[in-house]
Amino acid sequence: MALPITTGQAAGPLEPGRELTAAGQRRWSALRRFSRAIRTNRKATIGVVLMAIFIFVSLFPGLLTHQSPTAFSSDITAAPSAAHWLGTDNIGADIYAQVIDGTRNVMILAIAVGALTTAVAMVIGVAAAYLGGLWESVLSFVTDVLLVIPIFPLLIIIAAYFPNAGNLVLILVLSFTGWSYTARQLRSQAQSLRNRDFLLAAQVRGERSFYIIMVEIIPTMTSLLLASFLNNALYAVLAGSGLQFIGLGKSNNVSWGTTLYWANQNAAWTTGRYLWFIVPGLCIALLGVAFAFINYAFDEIGNPALRPLSAAKARKAAEASTRRRLASHGARAR
Amino acid sequence: MRFVIRRAGFFLLTLWACLSLNFFLPRLMPGSPADRIIAHLHGAVSQATVRAIELSLGINNTQGIWTQYVAYLGHTATGNLGFSYSQGEPVSEVIAGALPWTLGLVGITTILAFILGTAIGAVAAWRRGSRFDSVMPPLFVFTTAIPFFWVGMVLILIFSVYLGWLPAGGNIGQLAIPSFSPSYLGDVLVHAILPALTLLITGIGGWVLTMRNNMVTTLTEDYVRMARAKGLSSARVMVDYGARNAILPNLTGFAMSLGFVVSGAILVEYVFNYQGVGYYLLNAVGYDDYPLMQGLFLIITVAVLAAILLSDIATAILDPRTRTAG
Amino acid sequence: MAHALADDQNGLASPPQDGPTLQIRDLSVEYVLESGIVGAVDKVSFDVNPGEFLAIVGESGCGKSTLLFGIAQLLNPPAEISGGSVTFRGRNLVKLSDKDLAAVRWKDMSVVMQSAMNALNPVKSVGAQFKDAMRAHGVTSQEEIAQRSAEVLRMVGIDPVHLKSYPHQLSGGMRQRAMIAMAMLFTPELIIMDEPTSALDVVAQRSLMAQIKDLQREFHFAVIFVTHDMSLVRHFSDRLMVMYAGQVSEVGPTQQLFDHPHHPYTVGLMDAFPSIRGPRVQLTGIPGSPPDLARPPAGCRFAPRCPKVMPRCETNPPPDYELEGTSVRCFLYDGAPEVLSD
């Protein structure tokens, strides 16, 4: 993979006439470092590209297919053909259209659950750490109980009581059962922050607890919050598809999980309709991979010790950096 | 020792929470669970049958709710989990029949995944900079993100439909008679391979990644440098000083991963029609057989808690710091 | 008893060295980073004689710990030795294979690290850690292992019952002493110590240093002792080496360096530490900060902060000059004979 070409790291204002505050400059250079990190880290690149593709498909399904995913037709469980690229399902609807249209529902599920779960976890985790005392004991107990109870069977049972769950119910149920792991992580990080000097300084200034939590603690935890969001989105994709696959929460939603459900019900692999289940499943896998790769890459970007390195490549990269630096150093001296 | 007792106490508390959940959930949900069961039986039932069904759900409208609650707890403690109308047997018997299959499949693959995954992760961290380490992590990140059921279906496609080597489903052949004969055991094994492979492929990645990351951090510790300074062999340094310490967070993470394992087991049993606990759970949902559902949920929870307790004991054995902290 | 054991392990005992125990020549260590190559240790040369106590001092980041690990062949990536030799008992350690190196390790050269809490394996008992060192060098008899382990613990004033203890069960001072005991298992010729007293309070520090000196007097091993505490150095070391920005600025007999420091940096260091009994003097620090080792200056590395800087200092790196048994890297002494690397 080619080494990135940089023009050196500028420390001063970037455009003549445009003055940035010190904080603004820091944020700008952080952004540039960030995007460079993404470009050089192969995993991050793959993840971001995949994600971009899925986001595009979910925003503009009309560009990719004109068929309806649910229309009846007489062409039942047909093999792939020019008219139906992936064939049709048991009511004659176009499978390709289902995959395309389903993308939006899956993305909504992933993003909504990711955000909601992280939000709930944040409230509970940070409150537990910050309020301490009885609150902490009670919240921690609830968190730990939910952590050890097997979630998937619980989801199945809850979903069994809601036989016609739509997307919204699915989102709520997934969020309110999946927050415990994240809450624990956030709680322990908040606990370690609790006694740091900048918080004591805020208290001395007379700030109220709520302000301290929102303005001082939470922004410090952004990297963990981001990682949690990605993790929970991944959980939503897999758990949600899993539930749909076993027939819960199907209703009339078009989604990869439900397509797989029908594929399974009609024994697609014995009737030779392989693409019926391979393609939706592959999409779930790829979306999951996108979330997982981005998350893992963030881990590596944040903790350089974890990056894959080949000694020879590392030395070459280092020598190139030194050469560049000496060259620019020399140029500046002139 | 105190540490273990405290954990056991916590688990009992959790179990009680589960039981309470089991009890109150049907009563909180819209409609009456009894009505739904009756709907399944096409409404042509006598009052007596309705009463029997309600009783097995712990619903007794002649008593106050707290009395029912206490009675329910009492029943469960004595092993009376009600009657499964969809299977025509007491719930406890359905569970007794299904549990060994699931424990065998899931138990063995989980342990295998843990051992193999941890070993691969340790070696990858030890050989940082090699091709092994640049390939393994991305590969396993990939495997952790793919859904269980899809892997199962793909494996069926390859090994069953295309190659015809392995059966596509069931835990035993149709005509098998349970015994300890080689042919029976062989049959069991053959039917277990694909489900086991599915669980292994999806489950191993997590262990590899966490072990590798822990190990990379551990290898930078001073005591590892000290071990090298003492002239110990590479193998000894990697195992005794590196892995012994790196594995500890993995054991605590074991508890978290069990949720993942359980969901995998359920989906895999479904795809392969493997008649274990997960299969019956999903079956029960289809029939609105609440007593069976709740009984299975309970047994799954008990199994998970037992496994967590075991891993806590293992941590206490391997890490002397937890023992004195107790 | 201790000597006998060491001799046994060797097969045949080497007679005490006539020349220096350790000869470092032009040793350089680099950190290979994505942002560039950082030269942490630059062409360092010095000797350590048998039974000598050599102290290495310098500011944080001057490369002294890196130097130690470079000598002991214990560098972790991204650090690597980029040149020079480390001759110990006639063999260049840099070029030795892992197997040959393992035979030398601990038997002839051992290491004591800064924090015993981090340097001892938390999941193994103290006794177990002594044991695996001995077994790695062919001592298999349980009795011998137990006996020797108890013996070294007694040497440092710890009751042998603690062989069964885990590191977290011992106090800080005990842990450090246990580490020293471990380093003494084979009474090696050279013990390298990286700030072993920094984590202790002043009283414990003195007691540990006294213990080390006693052991040294009894068993005649050489010590390389890295520290940033000049007061410790004054009382306990024979020779003193001052490092700055990865290079040796001055090295010589301790008393001499304290009484007549040559290099402007050494002068600055001496002035920065007040004497508790002497007259009250104005404390002077050394203004400025060490150079960025990713972009080292072309000439003398101390030039930007030197009160006696000359024009040639900024463009040419000074060689090492020898005067009165001390080696100084400073143009102020141009005219004295230059130290040539052999």
Which secondary structure elements does this structure contain, and how are they paired or packed?
The complex is a heterotrimer of chains A (334), B (326) and C (342).
Chain A: H1 22-40, H2 42-59, H3 95-131, H4 133-148, H5 151-161, H6 167-178, H7 180-194, H8 197-205, H9 209-220, H10 222-245, H11 256-265, H12 274-302, H13 311-333
Helix pairs in contact in A: 1-2, 2-3, 2-12, 3-4, 3-6, 3-7, 3-9, 3-10, 4-7, 5-6, 6-10, 8-9, 10-11, 10-12, 11-12
Chain B: H1 2-28, H2 33-40, H3 47-56, H4 65-77, E1 83-84, E2 89-90, H5 91-126, H6 131-145, H7 148-162, H8 182-219, H9 222-229, H10 234-272, H11 277-287, H12 290-318, H13 320-325
Antiparallel strand pairs in B: 1-2
Helix pairs in contact in B: 1-12, 5-6, 5-8, 5-10, 5-12, 6-8, 7-8, 7-10, 8-10, 9-10, 10-11, 10-12, 11-12
Chain C: H1 2-10, E1 22-33, E2 36-48, E3 53-57, H2 64-71, E4 79-88, E5 91-92, H3 98-104, E6 109-112, H4 116-119, H5 126-136, H6 142-155, H7 172-183, E7 190-194, H8 202-219, E8 222-227, H9 230-236, E9 239-244, E10 247-253, H10 254-259, H11 264-272, H12 311-315, E11 321-323, E12 326-328
Parallel strand pairs in C: 3-8, 3-9, 6-7, 7-8
Antiparallel strand pairs in C: 1-2, 1-4, 4-5, 9-10, 10-12, 11-12
Key features of this structure:
heterotrimer, B: 326 residues, mainly alpha, 13 helices, 78% helix, 1% strand, globular, C: 342 residues, alpha/beta, eight-stranded mixed sheet, four-stranded antiparallel sheet, 12 helices
Summarize the structure.
Chain A has 334 residues and is mostly helical. Helix content of chain A is 70%, strand content 0%. In chain C, the strands form two sheets. In chain C, strands 6-7-8-3-9-10-12-11 form an eight-stranded mixed β-sheet, with helices on both faces.
